[in-house]
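Incident review: delayed structure delivery

Summary: a single-chain prediction request sat in the queue longer than the usual turnaround. Root cause was a stuck worker, restarted by the on-call engineer. No data loss occurred. The affected request and its eventual output are reproduced below so the record is complete for anyone auditing the incident later.

Affected input:
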Amino acid sequence: MKKSLVFLIIVLVSALVLSSCSTQDENVVVTIEDRVISVDNVRDILKAKYPKAENYIDIDLQVKKDLLEPLIKKNLKIYAAYDLGLDQDEKFQKKLNDQKLRLLGSKYYETTIIDPLLPERAIENYLTRMGTEVKASHILIGYEGSRRPAQRSKDEALKLVHDIIDELKRGADFATTAVKYSDDKSAKQNNGDLGYFTWGRMVGPFQEEAWALDIGEVSGPVETMFGYHIIKVYDRREVPNYKPDRSQRNILRIKQTLAKEHADSARVRWVRHYAGLKKKYDYVLYEDSIKYVSKMLSEKKKVEKMIPGAFTSAQGEITFAEYKGDKITLGYLIDKYKNNMAKAFERFADERVLKQEIDRDSMNRLVMLDAEAFGINQQPDIVKEIKKFSDQEMSRMIEQQQVTDPVNPTDEEIRNYYNNNKDSFVKGAEIEIWEIYLTDENLAKAVAKKAKSGVDFQSLVNGYSEDTSMKKNGGYLGFKEINQRGTISREAHKLGPGGKIGGPVKYRRGWAVFKTGKKAEPRQLSFEEVKDQAKNKLTRELTVKAKSDWEASLREKYSVNINEEKLREI
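Output delivered after worker restart:
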């Protein structure tokens, strides 16, 4: 009976284990040693490549395998990095801990401060509003102290806004009025037209008013950090195929945006919360230690170099702050800044700077401690982000160690490369160009007409050019190859040398009228002129080859198994 019972237990346990393995295997498409690429990973890759596809069954197996190759290579690098023990690297550990602090700190602040401040429906309302876009124009009136400053007081700006609104009510055209009055520099080109924009694109008060207005309605004064706005709404429509993005990243972004409206309340709440944290963990700050050490550092830097050996073990035990289970000591700071000690400790000779360092470190430690007590470090999104960062950093580190750093061509190799690739180091034909830049097309046409009729080009530059930096040089651009100045240089090369006038041609956000001068023929550049360029090109080519060879060696060293049947079914 006893033997039968034992046998039954073994069978049941084996069945559970096999069932578990079977479930895991069903979700695995590729194994790279002990790392896996799951069905979900593959679907994400296929979705990014074929966003409109309903399924991926008909996609050729080889195409799927090719799409998986970059992820397989990345996993091979990560496995190799762990195999070499790079996860124990001091610099990696510091970066990882810094990233954990950022992630946990951000999530902790979100949980303890932002969430309690936001109304229950705030995020859903935000997502819903993002499904609509509004077409509007505006007139901006700045004042002294606003983000679009103007030479008028705030009261004068508000009076002007009311006067403009009165003009509009009497039938003035909004676009014409925007060109006439608006302090938004783009108004002269777009007549104040902002086009269609979705919720979240504009500052809070502006978008609140735009969404509240009826089509064709003009607002009253709307104040933002930029000044006073007058808004007119022309259309409102649904965003095509809109699907609310409820990803953790986007929800956090929305929360942070909404929290700006409660910035003062958030600050007050955080001050109270942090005071509670200090009490909860029996935090004590020893200001006398900070004063003593800053004074000691002031004296030390006069007579000796700031290195770890400059301090005794007793000095290393000087405690700045302590809390449940841990403390911040001078020895901790020595270890933290051992690679940049002279610069850091020179700053810490200032008592105020040293105290700021201890305060910042204390807050980070208490937040991490409380975040872990809340289990925030175990939340799936945090675990996922930490793993993602770790994988990316490991992949970057090993590639730099195995590929990038070893590639360092000698002077002889660089010269041989230059001699074998001289055709790549030829300076193309150049033409001398002068330019007049204008934002108004009609004015540009009139200036071009004057230049072509023989009016002195230099006087036209001085009288009309809106590019102040070029105006100082008399509009002189120098010698330019065919593509060095976009449309201007291309048209100049077409016209040829000899004082010919061209334009207006569209350039950047305006128009350009130009004159040509002399022409310089193509010439072979000497090794001395292009040594750095040749070195960079050779380094890039050698790096590409080294990377390809290294990736091939990883494929030979580590096992990669693709479940083709599973891949075909996805």
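Verification: The two ends are 48 Å apart (CA to CA).
Action items: add queue-age alerting; document worker restart procedure.
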